[in-house]
Specification:
Chain A: Probably deamidates glutamine residues to glutamate on methyl-accepting chemotaxis receptors (MCPs), playing an important role in chemotaxis. The complex is a heterodimer of chains A (about 160) and B (about 200). By secondary structure, chain A is of the alpha+beta class. Chain A contains two helices and ten strands, in the order βββββαβαββββ. With about 200 residues, chain B is α+β, with helices and mostly antiparallel strands. Classes of the chains: A alpha+beta (about 160), B alpha+beta (about 200).
Chain lengths: ~160, ~200
């Protein structure tokens, strides 16, 4: 049994293998997982919104841009090399739809786009994006192997 | 906006009146006794939500209604799938297992329950404050509670550092438990409090 560290909403954690990182009940939020496969260290952030733009103060781990900044900084401070970093993400669902009313802002989609963009900016390849749909996800990330385990209630379970 | 103790009491009173109407409506619908907790008013960081709803990936039925009108907000009624199944069985007068995830009948019954609960809450609020409010059609998700709530709270793509909402527990026999929350938009809060002279 591996030890598991839970990442809360608007929170991020780093870990060394064989520890697993867990975040539960992702809806429109996204779990961003980054690791260095050689050093077997990595981290996870549970972001809620695309960008910290315009919001003063507050928790930087809430936003895709600022959270990834912190996550990468902390993983690097553990000795990881930025060029070896790999990323996976899951979440970004659209949980509700109102008949006849197209959602003005699909916040899940916007979150996924923001994460993708920020990863590109950092030059970190995105290996897996399990995003969208209309269901919640609970994810476990193995920082050593990079395996991302995705559990849903009614839409199956997989390791990517 | 800073909330004073006096305003918190006023909000609790709003919750009391609205939730009492909602509990009565549910009780009439199910022909069962439904008890209601004293509503609590929370002003918390969204990140602390798990302290209020428990396990974030616990499967629950969530009925979400937008409150439109002069003091808009969001009303959400959620209950564990076991309770939701009992409610649907009571409505259909059956002991057969119900498919809440895919079954159209069960899902529209749940939406109707939410509709009735929320409408009675809103009617009470309108009578009390004199502010006209209308409920939208209900939307339903039977899924991880954290996933459903984050989607509701983050829908507009903004989130204040603290969210304020009124929270009431409903319990009934046999084994029905649910939670009702009302989230006024920031401007709405001022109007509702203003209408009550606080």
């Amino acid at each position: 049994m591996n030890d598991v560290i839970t990442v809360g909403m608007a929170d991020f954690k780093t870990a060394v293998a064989p520890i697993l990182l867990l975040t539960a009940g992702l809806g429109s939020c996204i779990g961003i997982c980054v690791h260095d496969p050689l050093l077997k260290v990595g981290g996870m952030a549970h972001i809620m919104l695309p960008t910290a733009n315009g919001s003063l103060g507050g928790n930087p781990a809430k936003y895709a841009d600022t959270a990834l900044e912190l996550l990468v900084r902390d993983i690097m401070s553990m000795g990881a090399s930025k060029s070896r970093l790999r990323a996976k993400m899951a979440g970004g669902a659209q949980m509700f739809s109102f008949p006849g009313k197209p959602p003005v802002l699909k916040i899940g989609d916007r979150n996924a786009e923001a994460v993708e963009q920020e990863l590109k900016r950092h030059g970190i390849p995105l290996l897996v994006a399990d995003v969208g749909g209309s269901f919640g996800r609970t994810i476990h990330f193995n920082v050593g192997t990079g395996d991302l385990h995705i559990r849903t209630i009614n839409h199956g379970e997989k390791v990517v | 906006m800073k909330i004073t103790q006096f305003q918190l009491d006023a909000l609790r009173e709003i919750g009391n009146i609205g939730s009492a109407h909602a509990a009565t409506a549910l009780s009439t619908l199910l022909q069962r006794r439904i008890d209601m907790s004293v509503p609590e008013v929370w002003a918390v960081r969204f990140e602390e939500l798990s302290a209020i709803v428990g396990q974030l990936d616990d499967p629950q039925a969530v009925i979400y209604v937008k409150v439109e009108g002069d003091a808009p907000g969001k009303a959400v009624f959620f209950f564990p799938v076991e309770s939701a199944e009992i409610v649907v069985q009571l409505l259909f007068g059956t002991n057969e297992p119900m498919d809440l995830y895919m079954g159209e009948m069960a899902q529209s019954a749940l939406k109707e329950v939410g509709n009735i609960l929320v409408s009675s809450f809103i009617m009470a609020l309108t009578q009390f404050s004199g502010i006209p409010l209308q409920p939208s059609v209900p939307a339903l998700a039977v899924d991880m509670i954290g996933a459903s709530l984050d989607a509701i709270f983050l829908e507009e793509g903004v989130l204040d550092d603290t969210v304020l909402f009124i929270d009431t527990q409903l319990t009934g026999i046999p084994k029905i438990e649910g939670q009702f929350i009302f989230l006024p938009e920031e401007g709405s809060l001022k109007k509702l409090l203003g209408a009550m002279g606080v």
